[in-house]
Amino acid sequence: MINRAVPSGRQMQQRSGLPPHHQRQYSSDQFMLFDSAPGGGGNKWLPHTQQVEYSRMLRSMQKGEFLSSAADQATPLGSRPSSGQHRNGGDVSSSELSPGILDLHSFDTELLPELPIPSMHESASHFGYNGHGRSFDDSDASFSLKHPTGKGSTLPENNVLKSFSVDKEKSGSVAKIKVVVRKRPLNKKEISKKEEDIISIKQRLNSLTVHETKLKVDLTEYVEKHEFVFDAVLDEDVSNDEVYRETVEPIVPAIFRRTKATCFAYGQTGSGKTYTMQPLPLKASQDILRQMYHTHRNQGFQLFVSFFEIYGGKLFDLLNDRRKLCMREDGKQQVCIVGLQEYRVSNVDSIRELIEKGNATRSTGTTGANEESSRSHAILQLVIKRSVDGSESKPPRSIGKLSFIDLAGSERGADTTDNDKQTRIEGAEINKSLLALKECIRALDNDQVHIPFRGSKLTEVLRDSFVGDSRTVMISCISPNSGSCEHTLNTLRYADRVKSLSKGNNPKKDTSINSNIRESTTLPLSSALPTVPSYNGNNGYIVTENNRYGWSKQVDKETSLLSNMDYVSSRREGRREEVSAAPYTNYYKEQSRGSTPADDSDSSEEAYETSKPLRKGKVEAYSAPSFGDKGRTVDPQPKWKDVPDVDTNRFYSDDDLSTLLKEEDDLVFAHRRQVEETINIVREEMELLEEADQPGNQLDEYISRLNSILAQKAAGIVNLQARLAHFQRRLMEHNVLVSSLGP
Ligand SMILES: Nc1ncnc2c1ncn2[C@@H]1O[C@H](COP(=O)(O)OP(=O)(O)OP(=O)(O)O)[C@@H](O)[C@H]1O
């Protein structure tokens, strides 16, 4: 019997003869608390829930919640001594760090009863500060000194009330999804190879251009420009402090109000994900503690830290000697990470030590592009809890959570220079999880009934961070060198796809779509896809509302012909899908030629994209404008007037259409499951083979077992493909019928 237990860390490397993993050396420089950052990092997040926030604030004021802020006036933080620097402290005291089992989904989203407001003069010790290490209050003065912009700084005593409202306002105006791109400088190796910097950035316009060198047929070179616009674009000289201010700082106040926020870095290996992500949790912890002891003083909040990694589809506790963790689902489909230790922390030093410990334990290895490449997804979670009755006798209940995810390099699956078996397994797993992450974000935004959380361990773990009141920040890290052009474009397209999902929050993005296209010759798919509400020529009356997962989306209030079209193409129970003209244009042309739609956006989506354009078919039939033209300006009255006045009831009540759409979804879903299942089986079998690859073991038996499973799966996939093709034919017939009944 073969022992299938997965060894962790070095053991595995030695046994299986893997390329040398080594533990990441943590550089404390990256944790300088207070970079001398230039001011004006500016919160550019756009408002979308201000009215809700405003009334919430009014209610809070009526309930006297601001009393707690007033308590701070009695203990001015600025009067405390400060160090604010990395202190060479001893070990984290065990009394400070109380390990426990983290149930990721034990979040009770019901409101806790209002706590009685303790005396104005109660001290921070009430919250478990026991005198070990530096207390938060000790370092407070540094907070006020080191924020040149005043953001997140300690305000004068008579401004405490204002500080609270500023915090509320700050997080209230945070978009559901924010996509930020960060470019790193050329490194020594790239400079010595005389590689060019092919990224130009207009930071004020939040835009960047990739200058891709290409060859014509006659072998002359030309430069193709790809321009992208994001919520923020950070140039190579931007400090980590500024990155924090742009990304995480605005969402910190929200996690005291039951928000679950996720910040993740995405990009190819060596593009700066770890460099960007590592300082963020510490900076966020500082702000959280500041708010715990200041804005939310005496309200019984506690801060907990946990840190684990997902490596090869398995979970390991980075704060507990890489102990293997189990993920379980209870009857209510709530996922728990059994055995994960979380530590209660009350000062910055303790958190720093935990983060250092976790980072040092992470699985890393050497790749062509990065000597300390992350081979895992590392997830650090800061959880805010609160005791139900204000005492410590009962276990505290989770209130909000901030997850930081340093994703493994995005291109690992395709990395042919590191072509050993283990790397390929890692790559497959990484690609799968990145794809699943995008699928989840897309499904959530579409208000789909089925959210494919089970697509990967990563998305399963993050499940609770995506439902309810959530915020997501994606930091796309890019390398500037010409040799990375292809990976950089892939990263930007992935980011662009995620960005396109958040247009509901961000009116600015509608205009940015135009600029995305302005200079591009090759357009990123989602950049070229304006959403229907953006082009509402009737009255421009567009509102944002949250879908049932709490993600905002735009809804066109008018029952215009346009919205009827939308309805036709996405008539699903509880679902309104944003319809875009461009992809269908392509699709329709392709279909007329009898081929399948080209994937012009993201090759990794091939398996999933086939279903998407199908529903967009009607738009082309009505001569929707093409958005691919250079120098395009958006016509506020696009060619919707060409749309014939179709007898909508006739088709919309057509049960056949619903059945077709349902069938399509089922097929695609089944297809996807088959593929995922196959990947899983292959991965498991490869692990088995690897173990069996020793004298005395029955290798042949494993190979034949693997072959028979693969053959079965292949037959299943062929069958599904045939059914999918059949379905596509039927839908085409349907479309032709609809077109023939036009004006
Ligand atoms: N903005 C930056 N400024 C200066 N140096 C940077 C920056 N970003 C990254 N670097 C340097 O580039 C190298 C690679 O960065 P990092 O390890 O963060 O990449 P990564 O994306 O996490 O890679 P992997 O996916 O392989 O783990 C490091 O030496 C890091 O110090």
From TrEMBL:
Region Disordered, residue ranges: 1-27, 71-99, 567-642
UniProt cross-references to SUPFAM superfamilies, sorted A to Z: P-loop containing nucleoside triphosphate hydrolases
Pfam families: Kinesin (PF00225)
Keywords attached to this entry: ATP-binding, Microtubule, Motor protein, Nucleotide-binding
Gene Ontology biological process: microtubule depolymerization; microtubule-based movement; regulation of cell wall organization or biogenesis
Amino-acid positions noted as binding ATP in the UniProt annotation, renumbered to this chain: G267, Q268, T269, G270, S271, G272, K273, T274
Taxonomy, superkingdom: Eukaryota
Keyword match Ribonucleoprotein: no
Biased amino acid composition, Polar residues: 80-97
Acidic residues composition-biased segments: 599-608
UniProt domain Kinesin motor: residue ranges: 176-501
GO molecular function, one term: ATP binding
Entry GO CC: microtubule
Family: Belongs to the TRAFAC class myosin-kinesin ATPase superfamily. Kinesin family. KIN-13 subfamily.
PANTHER family linked to this entry: KINESIN-LIKE PROTEIN KIN-13B (PTHR47971:SF15), KINESIN-RELATED PROTEIN 6 (PTHR47971)
Protein name: Kinesin-like protein
Record organism: Dioscorea zingiberensis
